[in-house]
Each structure stands twice: as C-alpha cells, then as structure tokens.
Amino acid sequence: MESPSRVEMILDKLYNDPANPAGFAGVNQLWIEARKEDKKIRKKDVKEYLEGHRTYTIHRPRRVRFKRSRTMPAAIDVLSKRVFAEQVRSKKSKDMIPAFENILKRMEMHPHRIFSDKGTEFTSKEMMEFFKLKDIEKFTPNVSTVKASLAERCIRNIKQRLYRYMSEKHTLKWTEALNKIVDAINHSKSRAIGGLRPVDISFKNARRIREKIYGKIGVNPNVKKPRFQKDDFVRMSRNKNVFSKGYLPNYSDEILVKNKADPNRYRVRDEKGEKFKGYFYPEKLTKVRKDDNTSYRIEKIIRYRRKKDGNKEYLVKFFDYPDPEWIDESQFVLNIFFNVSDYSDNKPNKFRSHLAKPIQFQGGNWVCGLYSIQYPQSWAATIGTDEKQWIEIYYNKEKPFRCAIPKTTQLTPKGLSFFLKLSLAKVRKEKARKRREVTADSEDDLIITTEINKTKAPSKKRSKRNRTKS
C-alpha cells in the first residue's frame, strides 16, 4: 500500500477538478475514478479523505427518514389508573406485537378486555389474532370519531411531562426519559382513585378499592327508566364533524327498529331484521311514529317493470336506506310547493301563489284537483277577523272560482271532508243564487253554487236584563 500522502494527493486532484467525473461527486464515484489511477486505493481511504474535506461535509446529503422510535403506544388500567408505555419504530403489526408483549409482562395479570379506537395499529388482522391468542376480548367504537378517552388523557399526561423535560434539558431525545416519567406517574397520587397511588392497587385489594370508588357491585342508585321500549321505531344520529352546520339534519332518514332494551344502551336492527354492530346510547337515538301515512323520500328511480295486471312497479333508492326496493306506482305521492313569497303585497288574509314548477302529465287519463287546505287553527283566529274571507282560484280561460273559508276549525276529518266537497265542487253554469242550492245524488256527488262567506261583525247588543232596567 502506498503512503497516505500519495493517496490524498490523488484523491485531491480528482475531487477538486470540475472537469473530472469524480469532481465534487460522492464517495462511490470518487472511488471508481481513483481506482483507475491506483487499484490499491480502498473505499475506506476515500471516506477518510472526504471526512476531512470541508466542502463535502457541509454539502453532504441530509437524511430525513431513517429507522428510529417515532411512536409510543400507551395503555392504562381502568381501575388502578396504572400507566404502561412502550417505544416503537412504526405502527405496523411487526412492531406493535412485541410492544404489547412487553406491556403484558409488566402487568400483574393479563386483562380480559381491551378497548381502543379504530386505528389499524389495533384492529389489523395480526393484532386481532394476537389478542385472541392471549384470550383478550377486543372492543372498538362503531364510529372513528369516538376515542378511548382514558388512554387519550393518559397520553396527554405523559406528553406534558416529556415536553417539559425536553424544554429543560434542551434535547429532543424523549426515549431516554420515557420509562422514568411513566414510573413517576404510577407513583403519584391520583384523585380518580381516592388519593391513592396506582402502584398501591393490586389484585388483592382491587375489590375493596372498586367498591370504595363505584359502590357495591350490582347496586346502582342512578338507574334510569328506559327511554325506549322493545320494537320502538327510532332514527340514528348522524356523524358530524366540527365544521358541520347546526341547522343541517341531525338524524338519518332511515327508520330503524330497536331490538333490545337496556337502561343505558340499546341494540338496533333494521326492518329486515339485520342487527347493527355495537350498542347505542339513548342520546344517539330519537323515537319516531310510523304508520300507513308515513312517507319516505325517494333519492333515485333506477328502473321500472310492468306487472301482469298492467300496473307498473318501480325500483327506487330511498334516502339513507342502503338497498333499493320495488314499489307500486300507486304508492307515489308528489309534494307540490308554492311560491307565496314571490308576491310582495301578500298579507295574511289576502295573498297569491303559484306552483314552483309546472306539472306535465304524459299518457293516460289524469285527474287533477285540490286535495286539502291546511291551516293551524280557525281562519278567524289566524288572521284576526272573520269578514269576507275566501280562496280565489284562477283558471286559464274561465272565470275565477271562489272557495269559502270556514269560520271555525273543523274538529273531525269527516267534517273537513264534507266542507271541502261543498266548497270545491263543480260550479253550476247558471247564475249564482243568494240562497244556497245543493243537489246530492250520492254521498260523494255533491254540487253547490258557492257564495262568499260574508259575516257581519258581532254587534254590541244589550242583554235582556239591561233593557228591562232601562
């Protein structure tokens, strides 16, 4: 081997020449070109030369990603509040399983149940097999927004002490202090367990500590009456993020059937009998009434088919319902909205309106008519007067038709039906008479010549007793 001075001279000549392929290049390129000059030059000699070269060392590529401990899985015992933590390089199962092995070794006894969020580091196939092998029942929430609150609070405590340590020591090496901080937390008194330390609670005194904190087992003075009964119809609460608007719907359109009642939680199934995974708190459900008049919003009509009797069936997709269904054409109901606000001169006792969108009928014989008029209370109570109130309906080429308004609320469906038949019947062509003339051929065939419902304001008459005195 030649003397170091000769090697340095060769490398210096090659590296500092911008015209040379090794000029200001890396270790490998400089070594290849140096071996052309002298085959005895080793790669180690090239590295030692570049370590002493200022230009190379300050411009050397900086590695950002490399193998290091970046994750800290933490666990906490629900009763004793004892904390367990490990440092791992990634959230992959090959790193998480050894970390859980170390955590279980430090526990006095293996847990029967573990609750975590829906992160894949806890719910992967390998991790689920690991929990099954250890005879541990694994629980996760139904939605990703729900976290393991005790574990999240435990991580906050650890990070709070870690960041204070790093600020004081002017370092970012948290792995050196992790085990010491966890041990210090476990030897600190906790208000959640009555001022005891987590290390003071063991399997021997666990029952006594639990009764001291939560009361006797099987006795719960705060048991509430179930909000729902079996086979009630309910809607499920929608999952909203922090930016969702408060005026948007909070519950889904899908009507579900509650399967089993429990004072604190409920199981839910759909109308086909399929059970939903997990339990639901009463705050996540709202009770609804379902009968023959319940309507469902249609999101999309997929296709139709004709039955043997000539009627059509449509395959429709309902809002918030997963599977499409076939329904008969007679089950469709069209809601028509009016644009009352388009007329600025509208008043409670005199207003105009028109259809928001024209209706086009294609094929067949269609019958179109006014089905019902809805108002909250009696007309007089709504607008504050009972004089000269009517609804005026305009047709394209015919004279306006006036429909009288009832003076009082119709208390029964039969009374309202009879009034609508009288008010909306076909007007006779002859001149309207002052006296009401009704022709009834059958119960459903009523023809009336309508007139304006004119009623005078009640006059202030003196009572018979007052007239006698005067």
TrEMBL record:
Domain Integrase catalytic: 32-206
GO biological process annotation, one example: DNA integration
Gene3D superfamilies, per the entry: 2.40.50.40, Ribonuclease H-like superfamily/Ribonuclease H (3.30.420.10)
Top-rank taxon, per record: Eukaryota
Molecular function GO labels: nucleic acid binding
UniProt name for this protein: Integrase catalytic domain-containing protein
Species of the source: Meloidogyne hapla (Root-knot nematode worm)
